[in-house]
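ok posting inputs for the adenosine-5'-tetraphosphate job
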Amino acid sequence: MVKKNLVFSGVQPTGNLHLGNYLGALKNFVSLQKEMECIYCVVDLHAITTFQNPMELKNNVLETVASFLATGLDPNKSIIFNQSSVSGHAELAWILNCVSRIGWLNRMTQFKDKAGSDKEKASVGLYVYPNLMAADILLYKATHVPVGADQKQHLELSRDIAQKFNKDFNCKDFFPLPEPLIPKNISRVMSLRDGTKKMSKSEESDYSRINLKDSPDEITKKIKKAKSDSEEIPDNLKSLENKPESLNLINIFAEISKNSLENVLNEMSGKEYSFLKTKLTDLIISEIGPVGQEINKLLKDKSHLEKVLKKGKEKANIKAEENIKNIREKVGLI
Ligand code: AQP
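and the output
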C-alpha cells in the first residue's frame, strides 16, 4: 500500500516568535501547505515542561496562532489547533514513555541545555519531552516534519521509537518513520549577541533576537547593536570560521535575499559591517514588517483565533481518535 504523505509540526507558545522560528520553520510550513496535507500544532503541553504563567500561556497560544496565520498558513488548507485540546497526544505519549528507553533520553542535548547545571530540579516533563514530540508526530502517522536543525536529534529519536513500537508489537510499517525537513541554507539562526547560541524566545536579552512583532525602529536598533567585527568583510567563508556572529548576519542576509553565501561575500567583501547592517535592516523590515503588522491586527479579534483553534481541534480529533483506537488494539488495551 502506498503511504500518503502527511506533514506535522509544532511551535511552543512560549512568547514572541522570532526570526529563527520564521526562517527555520514557519516559512517551510507555508510552502509545504501548497504540496501536502499539513497539521500545525501549538504545542502547549510542551510549553509547560518549564513553568508558564497561566494567563500568559493563554495569550501566547492565541499569539502563536496569529503568527501562523500572519505568515500565510490557511486554516482551510492546513489543520491548526492546540495540542492539549486533543487528548490523544497525552495518551500516546504515555504509551511511548513505555516504549522509549532511558538510555536514549539521556543522550538528548536539548534536555542538558535547558535543564542547566541542576538537573535534579528540572521537571520530569522536560526529560520526557522528546517522547511527547514522538507522540505528536506518530499520532497522525505523519511522514514529514519541517523543523529547524535544533530538533534533528529529537526527530531521530521519534524514528527509533516508531521502529521499536513496530517491532515490539509485531506490526511492520504500522508507524511510518518520519522524515525531518530541515532548511538547507539556514537551518539554525544564531543569537545576535552570541553566535554560538541559537536565537531563542527564552534568552533573557531581547537584543539577542528579532521578534516577528518588532517595529522597524526596534529592528534597526537590534541590528545596529548586533555583535560583528571591526575588520572589513572578507571574500571567503574560511575567514569567518571563528567569527560566528558575523557569519550569522551574512547567513541571514543570504537567506532573505535568496542569494548564496558566496555571492553575498563577493558583493560585500572589503566593506565595513555597517554597510551590511544597513542593507540587512532594510531586508528584515520588508520581510517581517508586514507579518508583525498582521499579527497585531489578528490579535484584535481573539474570538476569530479561538474559532480557528476549535475548527482545527475537531478535524485533528477525528484523525487522532481513529489512530488511537488502532494503537490501543496493538498494545492490548481494552
Ligand atoms: N534559532 C533557530 N533557528 C532555526 N530554527 C529555529 N527554531 C527555533 N529556534 C530556531 C525552530 O522553530 C520551531 C519552533 O520551535 P519552538 O518554539 O517549538 O521551540 P524551540 O526550538 O525551543 O524554540 P525557542 O525559540 O528556543 O523556544 P524556547 O526558548 O521557548 O525554548 C522548531 O522547528 C525549531 O526547530
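notes: The pocket of adenosine-5'-tetraphosphate is lined by residues 11-12, 14, 20-21, 24-25, 147-148, 150-151, 188-189, 198-202 (CB under 6 Å). The mean pLDDT is 95.
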